Automatic annotation (TrEMBL):
Taxonomic lineage: Bacteria, Bacillati, Actinomycetota, Actinomycetes, Sporichthyales
Organism in which the protein naturally occurs: Epidermidibacterium keratini
Disordered: annotated segments: 25-82
The protein, known as: Uncharacterized protein
InterPro entries from the UniProt entry: FxLYD_dom
Length: 155
C-alpha cells in the first residue's frame, strides 16, 4: 500500500499538536523542578550534632587490652572552648606497660565534639601515674567518656 503526499502530510500535521503539547508540559515541569531544588535556606545539618574534622587520633597500640578499670578520671566540664581533665592510672599488671588515655566529649547522640589523648610510657607495676588531657570542645557536648588501653605504643 502506498501513501501519497497527502497521507504523509496528514500524519505530519496530526503529530504537531502532540509534540507541542509534550514540549509545553515538559518545559513547565522542568522549570518547577529547577525552582524547587534551588534553595537559599540554611543547611539542615545542625553543627551541634557534627563531630569536628580535626580531632586528634590516638597512637597505634600493639597487643592492646582494655584498662579502664585501672584508671580514674576527675571532673570533666562540657562547656564549649578549652577544657582539661586529669586523672590517674595504676598499673595492676606484672610488668611495665604503655597506656593510652582518650577522653571524648560527646553530645546526646554520641557524636564526638572534642577529644584529648594522653600517652603514658613504661608505667611500672603498682605505680600510680597522673595524666592530663586538654581539648577544644565544640558547642553541644553533654558528657565525657573515658577509654583506656594498655600495650606497646608503636607510633
Amino acid at each position: 500500500m502506498q501513501v501519497g503526499h497527502r497521507g504523509r502530510a496528514f500524519v505530519a500535521v496530526a503529530m504537531i499538536p502532540a509534540v507541542v503539547g509534550l514540549a509545553g508540559c515538559t518545559s513547565n515541569d522542568d522549570k518547577k523542578a529547577d525552582e524547587s531544588t534551588t534553595s537559599t535556606t540554611k543547611p539542615a545539618v545542625d553543627p551541634k550534632k557534627v563531630s569536628p574534622t580535626d580531632l586528634p587520633q590516638p597512637p597505634a597500640i600493639e597487643n592492646a587490652a582494655g584498662a579502664r578499670q585501672e584508671a580514674e578520671m576527675g571532673e570533666c566540664k562540657t562547656a564549649a572552648g578549652s577544657q582539661e581533665v586529669t586523672g590517674k592510672i595504676t598499673n595492676a599488671g606484672d610488668g611495665a606497660i604503655d597506656y593510652v588515655v582518650v577522653v571524648n566529649w560527646v553530645n546526646g547522640s554520641s557524636d564526638v565534639m572534642g577529644r584529648g589523648v594522653a600517652v603514658l610510657k613504661a608505667v611500672e607495676p603498682g605505680a600510680a601515674v597522673d595524666w592530663s588531657v586538654s581539648a577544644e570542645v565544640a558547642e553541644g557536648a553533654e558528657a565525657c567518656t573515658l577509654n583506656v588501653q594498655k600495650g606497646t605504643v608503636t607510633e
